[in-house]
Amino acid sequence: MAATTTLSNTPATDPVIDPFGRSITYLRVSVTDRCDFRCVYCMAEDMTFLPKKDILTLDELDRVCSAFVRMGVRKLRLTGGEPLVRRGIMNLINGLGRHLESGLLDELTLTTNGSQLERFADQLYAAGMRRINVSLDTLDPDLFKKLTRWGRLDQVLRGIQAAKDAGLKIKINAVALKGVNDGELDRLIAWCGDEGFDLTLIEVMPMGDIGEQRVDQYWPLSMVRADLAQRWTLEESDHKTGGPARYFDVKETGGRLGFITPMTHNFCESCNRVRLTCTGMLYLCLGQNDSADLKEVVRAAESDGPLEDAIRAAIALKPKGHDFIIDRRRRPAAVPRHMSTTGG
Ligand code: SAM
Ligand code: SF4
Q1: What is the mean pLDDT of each run of 10 residues along the chain (344 residues)?
Q2: Residue-wise over 309-332: b if at least 16 C-beta within 10 A, else e?
Q3: How far, in Å, is the centroid of ligand 1 from the Cα of 42?
Q4: Domains of the chain (ranges plus CATH)?
Q5: Does ligand 1 lie within 6 Å of residue 221's CB atom?
Q6: Nearest to 324 by CA among 221, 222, 207
Q7: Can you name the residues that pair with 75 across neighbouring β-strands?
Q8: Is the CB of 97 under 6 A from ligand 1?
Q9: pLDDT of residue 148
Q10: Is residue 176 in contact with ligand 2, taking CB distance under 6 Å?
């Protein structure tokens, strides 16, 4: 069944402003907690997934996303879990594409592990998507297998090629893991330069219990950058994507390299986003537990008024910032949710 086309599509209002004066114009939506990979820094191998009744249907997801769009959100990113393993996901994406056509939305995009791109790339482009993020931490097939547990590098590379052929602009995201993929970054930088992909490096964040000492994986990007600068000429760039990355031009490749540094550099003061989980929980900050349950509101009323009121009330609770700390004295994860719950 196609995602709803009957829902109201009234013009956008000005964005909702939070108590710290930040306009909320960016919604990230985790459309499923499931995934076909089990990346070591993201999930335990024996994850228990949520029962179907707890998950918003595609129509409910469309309703909540559309309410945000009417309330001034200009950018929607679908994530997960792996968004492309959710059954019927193209119905949701095609449905949300109407907001691009109407001009209410500037961008509809996706963060994916790339495993299903070969199948979906053309459809994503046809739905109005123009840019996607693909997570890829290494170009070494054995290390890829070790890191993702269940993934296959050749399948992901075919997916990335299909996305490129379809006309999608690609940004590669790599989590920097000390002692794990340190030796891979030069190869990733060179490859992204050759392929014309931007590359963003991400610090590992203390989310969810994954049964490993995260402090052992944590590698501050300030150190990564100092190391890379010995081999690459990195020139500060004023490029912005609406996300929290700081970009540098890599002179040798002509490509762009971004750093997302939630741990070493707090970027909360310019945060314009909120996050919706597949169960309808709205999280106001990736690194805090402040949230509002929109599922109950959506299921309780057919009209969207109560939903819009609940969104406004939730944004009024957006905290000033996160307080991630990775340290040996704080063994439990700082935030108990896995990244796959809130979406990266
Ligand atoms: N499955 C999709 C993917 O891998 O791109 C989308 C969801 S995944 C949770 C989104 C991003 O979060 C990925 O780039 C992943 O590397 C990153 N991620 C997962 N756990 C993380 C953690 N603990 N710290 C930092 N990044 C993490
Ligand atoms: Fe799946 Fe993405 Fe988490 Fe890897 S990072 S386990 S691909 S949700």
Answers
A1: 43 81 94 96 89 97 98 97 98 98 97 98 98 98 96 98 98 92 95 97 72 64 92 92 82 95 65 93 83 96 95 90 51 51 54
A2: ebbeebbeebbebbebebeeeeee
A3: 6
A4: 22-342 (3.20.20.70)
A5: no
A6: 207
A7: 26, 107
A8: no
A9: 96
A10: no
